[in-house]
Amino acid sequence: xxxxxxxxxxxxxxxxxxxxxxxxxxxxxxxxxxxxxxxxxxxxxxxxxxxxxxxxxxxxxxxxxxxxxxxxxxxxxxxxxxxxxxxxxxxxxxxxxxxxxxx
Length: 103
Prior knowledge:
It contains no helices and ten strands. The chain has about 100 residues and is mainly beta.
């Protein structure tokens, strides 16, 4: 059994027991979150697709970790003009463990 959920402007294919990293959620570590934007559910080979979401379907997950990803260097350069600009960015994320898919 798997589902496709939407959160943080992205879509994720999840099954029970999966750990995924999503865009930062306003939840503490150890708390539980519910994703209600379920786009598709596959239960024992029977596929239920939403228009755009599946009615009554939710995915429950436990928050494992709130953190920052590795630093990404953004370097801008224009030749012959002496223009150099270096920036760094660390994207915040929330790691969740999927506990239950309610279809």
